[in-house]
Amino acid sequence: MPDSPQPITLSSFGEEPDYFEPYSSRYLVRNATGRWLPLLESGYKRHLRARGLKSKPDEGDALSDIDAAILDVQDHRDISHYGPICGKNAGLLEANGQRILVTEDLRLPEPAAGSWANLRAVLEGLLQRGEEEATGRLQVATFHGWIRSSVKALRAGELQQQQALALCGPPRCGKSFLQGIITHMLGGRGAKAERYFSGRTPFNADLYAAEHLMLEDEHCSTRIENRLKLGSSLKQHTVSTYLGSLHAKGRNAVNLPGWWRVSITLNDDPEAMMVLPPLDQHIADKIIILRASVFQWPMPMESTSDRTGFHARIVSEIPAYLHWLLHEWQAPREVIDPHRYNVATFHHPELAEALHCFSPEAELHELLQLAYADAALHRRSVEATAAEIEAAVRYRDPARADRLFSFRNACSTYLGRLVKKYPNQLEAVRDKTHRWWVIDHGFLSSQPPVTR
């Protein structure tokens, strides 16, 4: 994987320069607090006058000092975009043939040896103690591996591919608390990603300004077309590390890589988990799914002041946790992925089974058993095209079929997934001109997963 482009430090230019963004006609100037101000020309002229430049030309000169300075900035220090950029420190970034002014530094916690007893109690209480021993240890180790891979890549400026992390558990168990702590571990910049992931807005400058993108189940849809759209967005923001499109409202879109980690918090009831995309071959390895449990907090959490104080204590322990993670922890062999992600994809077995039972292909399995009940009764196999199968299902239950077949070729898509799960009972057959499906009577008489 190619190294990500690195900013040129402003100090390499000697005296810190100003910049000009032509599309918005803004001049970028550092103010006294060190922040970048986007100014129209009238405001920029005031700054130039404050620096001692003259607004009127000397006798015999065509331009005043201010006009000459404006032309110089326009000619030599034009940029395509300005703003904070995930994974980058402040400076001039050259990427994809464009010059980007990164306006904010990363604020990464510095690893330091020390105690992280309270953070350990949270991680083990949330992910380990409510599980069987082997599953609990694997969950905690997977979380450690996911954080370590992310922190190492971020500190090195590398565009390391990484799975999305889903935390599923009962309400108020602490999963959203941990999601907030992840933000601090990754530098303190988080963004709610649902509006862009769901397609409700084309503008994503806020996502490019944060390393941690967060989703919550109450803001996501369980409709299959929206779940598929979420799956596409997750792929774009987890494994597509080369180019993305940064589009701020009222400004030109620019193309450059983004550094992101995506986390999702969900209640663990089936209806809430149905916001996740179907775990097919395109998305299954791109999501880690951990189950969170209710546990005893190591400090009081009754009042607002209790929670505020505990949050501050946990944040103060992050440097010690990161030091242990980067310099002392040895990852168990079963959680290592030496090829793509550094940490192996893990799906909590009970949650994975629940997701399958509520998947669209599981519902199709149930509807096929209803539609071809007579064939199952007489132990006959069924041979039919996808169109004929869809027609039989629609005749048996039109309302459910309308929900299930929400896009063209949905029936073939779900039959293809069922073939992978039941290769001895369902077969796709084709000749030079036709394709059809052979459904064994055993598939039609077996107990289907409960879907709805």
Describe the overall structure.
With 452 residues, this protein is an alpha/beta fold. The protein has 3 domains: 10-102, no CATH class; 117-355, Rossmann fold (3-Layer(aba) Sandwich); 359-445, Arc Repressor Mutant, subunit A (Orthogonal Bundle), CATH 1.10.10. Helices cover 40% and strands 16% of the residues. The protein is built from 17 helices and 18 strands. Strands 8-9-12-7-13 form a 5-stranded parallel sheet. A hairpin with a 2-residue loop joins strand 5 and strand 6 (98-102). Helix 3 crosses helix 10, helix 12 crosses helix 14 and helix 14 (386-396) packs across helix 15 (398-404). The radius of gyration is 28 Å and the shape is globular. The protein starts with 18 loop residues before the first strand and ends in a 7-residue tail after the last helix. The model is unreliable at 1-14 and 448-452 (pLDDT under 50). This is Helicase. It comes from Luteolibacter soli.
Write out key terms for the chains shown:
single chain; 452 residues; alpha/beta; Rossmann fold; Arc Repressor Mutant, subunit A; 3 domains; five-stranded parallel β-sheet; three-stranded antiparallel β-sheet; disordered N terminus; disordered C terminus; Helicase; P-loop_NTPase
Task: Assign the CATH class of the largest domain.
Answer: Alpha Beta
Low-confidence stretches: 1-14, 448-452
Please state how the strands of the largest beta sheet are arranged side by side: 8-9-12-7-13
Beta-strand content estimate: 15-25%
Give the CATH architecture of the largest domain. 3-Layer(aba) Sandwich
Helix % is: 25-40%
Largest sheet, described in full? 5 strands, parallel
Number of domains: 3
Number of helices: 17
Number of strands: 18
Shape from CA axes? Answer: globular
What structural class should be given to the helix and strand makeup?
Answer: alpha/beta
Radius of gyration: 28 Å
CATH domain fold name of the largest domain: Rossmann fold
